[in-house]
Specification:
By secondary structure, this protein is an alpha/beta fold. It has 10 helices and 14 strands. The strands form 4 sheets. The chain has a 6-stranded parallel beta sheet, sandwiched between helices. Bound molecules: 1,4-dihydronicotinamide adenine dinucleotide and oxaloacetate ion. 1,4-dihydronicotinamide adenine dinucleotide is lined by residues 14-15, 17-21, 45-47, 50, 91-95, 112, 133-135, 137, 159, 162, 191, 240-242, 245.
């Protein structure tokens, strides 16, 4: 090893023993997220009941002999797990159990994300960046940011790249074009069934997507199919999306760190700056471009009446979630 090689990037992964964690860790260690020349140190955070399973995953990571993997450790203490973290993949969350109301779910996850926000505040690196995958992802990001007072809220984002990829794949299947021909598709709002997958600015091989599909398909098939795809996967697979969610988390962070390609954007849920009438502070999905490790909400897009109504409906749901966690004293 060259003595002057840059220090490895510390990536903290929560919920490391879960199904998304298992699909995520090996690809991060292989260089798929940060590039083929960037060494990584993996900090795996789990609850005590799952820490042994995470230790087992470490053994398998060791057995891969990844040249870029500079260290790895399992933690049960969030303060230790986030100490020096450059990047956090916040996957671990409490799933909805039998008889749990929405407020119970928000409360259980609010407890997790407030503690993790405090731990991030205590010791994360100056260039810290987080993507929240664990549901309800947008509101969990809001809670974590609120408890990390010294870290800019803009560093806490939530994942809607899976929705973005699902939408690209559906549009490709409908038009018969390869996925690589599709650009400028956007997801707005919440990572929930209220999200708005928007093809009004999308192109397929340079041609406006709206010239290739009819409005009936967009409203009655495309939007509900993408928005309810998580439930469709659960119904067909018998378990929630795992490898596709891990892939999207890698893409989210890869694009944030390495930049979006010229002429295209990605979708990320980020704290609103008031753009497009989305109240400031709400963690809502927008089309964003990225460069030099920063992101920018794409400005000045024309928003049709059809789009406006759908963005507003999803934002209303986010405001209701924010009010619910505020009532619980979590935000
Ligand atoms: N944003 C998105 O597009 C998607 C989000 N999800 C969400 O991702 C989350 C994880 O999904 P899976 O991996 O399938 O679930 P899973 O149940 O297989 O794994 C979750 C893991 O998190 C751990 N965990 C729970 N509390 C923790 C804490 N306080 N600290 C550290 N770890 C903790 C559990 O022990 C478990 O190992 C779920 O909330 C799921 O709804 C899933 C798919 C897509
Ligand atoms: O729907 C779920 O429970 C998991 C999820 O967030 C998705 O697949 O988009």
């Amino acid at each position: 090893m060259n003595a002057q090689a840059p220090a490895p990037v510390t990536v903290t992964v929560t919920g490391a023993a879960g199904q998304i964690g298992y699909a995520l860790l090996f690809r991060i260690a292989s260089g798929a997220m940060l590039g083929p020349d960037v060494r990584v140190k993996l900090n795996l955070l789990e609850i005590p009941q799952a820490a042994q399973a995470a230790e087992g995953t470490l053994l398998e990571l060791q057995d891969c002999a990844f040249p870029l993997l500079a260290g790895m450790e399992v933690f049960e203490d969030p303060v230790k797990a986030f100490d020096g973290a450059n990047i956090a993949m916040l996957v671990g969350a409490r799933p909805r159990g039998p008889g749990m109301e929405r407020a119970d779910l928000l409360k259980a996850n609010g407890g997790i994300f407030s503690v993790q926000g405090q731990a991030i505040n205590a010791g994360a690196a100056a260039d810290f960046k987080a993507v929240v995958v664990g549901n309800p992802a947008n509101t969990n990001a809001l809670i974590a940011a609120a408890h990390a007072r010294d870290v800019p809220a803009s560093r806490f984002t939530a994942m809607t790249r899976l929705d973005h990829d699902r939408a690209v794949a559906q549009l490709a299947a409908k038009t018969g074009a390869p996925v690589s021909a599709i650009s400028n598709l956007a997801i707005w709002g919440n990572h929930s069934a209220s999200q708005y997958p928007d093809i009004t600015h999308a192109t397929v091989s340079g041609q406006p997507a709206t010239e290739l599909v009819d409005q009936g398909w967009i409203a009655d098939e495309f939007i509900p199919r993408v928005a309810k795809r998580g439930a469709e996967i659960i119904a067909v697979r018998g378990g929630s999306s795992a490898a596709s969610a891990a892939n999207a988390a890698i893409e989210h962070m890869r694009l944030w760190v390495q930049g979006t390609p010229a002429g295209d954007w990605t979708s990320m849920a980020v704290p609103s700056d008031g753009s497009y009438g989305v109240p400031a502070g709400i963690v809502s999905s927008f089309p964003v471009t990225t460069s030099g490790g920063d992101y920018t909400i794409v400005p000045d897009l024309a928003i049709s009446e059809f789009s406006r109504a759908r963005i507003d409906a999803s934002v209303a749901e986010l405001l209701a979630e924010r009010d619910a966690v505020a009532e619980l004293g979590l935000f």
